[in-house]
Amino acid sequence: MTTAFDPIDLSGTQLVNRIAMAPMTRSRAYGPGHSPTDSTVEYYAQRASAGLIITEGTQPSVVGQGYPDTPGLHSEEQIAAWRKVTDAVHAKGGKIFAQLMHSGRIGHPDLLPDGLVPVSASDVAPPGQAYFHDGPKDYVAPRPLTADEVRETIADFVSAARNAIEAGFDGVELHGANGYLIHQFLAPNTNLRTDEWGGSVEGRIRFAVEVSRAVAEEIGAARTALRISPGNPYNGIVESDPEPTYTALVQQLEPIGLAYLHLIENTREFTLVVRKLFTGTLVLNAATEGFTGPDALGLVEDGTADVISYGALFLANPDLPARLRTGGPFNAPDPASFFGGDDKGYTDYASL
Fold it and tell me: What pLDDT, in 10s, does the model give residues 10-60?
């Protein structure tokens, strides 16, 4: 029987176990030009016993930033700073993918330079307010990307993926979940387009497929992954019937040969549908009551998933795989240290 503590070949990247650290936004890129600092190096190196670390969301372009002090992968200084992180993780035997996250409409003009404004599939403002260290500000309606700008945005993802490999990452995970740009193209309430990038299921999945394909062609499919969250209402997304969209998406992704698909679980029933459609490695952020715990490891044993990703528990327990193996003890995550306090990897803020 396969267990979560067995190694796995991730399309050529050898993982020592099947426990992944989920991507968690930190807003601690205090280095020059929104680059990681020495504390970031320490943070990821402490957690290198994970089979796979997936970094915090990292913007592929200046306009892709949605929160204060989040890092990018679009400048030489950012590449150099991330190299210190990847070197430290590799020195401890770990593997690390950079999550590329364009926030789209989730942002604010005050976060952006040179008169830039948030962009998206359509001019639909998100509900709620943008987070700032000195207090929240109301979201604004984004500027819809033109067809040419959609292609330019795909090129930004490709460039950032290339930079990630230069920085020493083992691969990249494209953030297609939790209400950010790729998800905004997938969801019918945020994509009101009638051109080739919207207007139907085929049109709405096209951006996610084209980004995945373009990045895979640039750095290799074995180093390219995608994260999705069918039906997740976070950041004002409405997907009342997500299965047709995501079934079509997974079918289009299958021939690309991605390193893995990272699924934020909606229902176990649909997880099993995805499992049948996608023949590659399935990383699962399991639906749980409260923080994901040891019980989720059984999803590897019963074949539901190949790898289980953990969010908040990894913050409180940097040596989480060892604690999971022995059944604890576990330090309890402190919800007060999270921006939103959820164990989905999209609202956890590290307390470091």
Answer: 999 999 999 999 999 999 999 999 999 999 999 999 999 999 999 999 999
Q: Answer yes or no: are the C-beta atoms of 47 and 17 closer than 8 Å.
A: no
Using pLDDT thresholds of 50, 70 and 90, give the confidence band for residue 328: very high
Within 10 A of 351 (CB to CB), how many other CB atoms are there?
A: 12
H-helix segments, 92-240: 147-166, 181-186, 201-219
Amino acid (one-letter) located at 182: I
Over 50: is that where the pLDDT of 343 sits? Answer: no
DSSP state of 49: T
Give the CA radius of gyration of the chain. Answer: 18
User: Does residue 30 carry a catalytic annotation?
Assistant: no
- Spell out where 177-293 has E strands: 224-228, 260-264, 281-285
Q: Rounded CA gap, 326 and 310, in Å?
A: 16
Active site residue: 180, 260, 310, 346, which one? 180
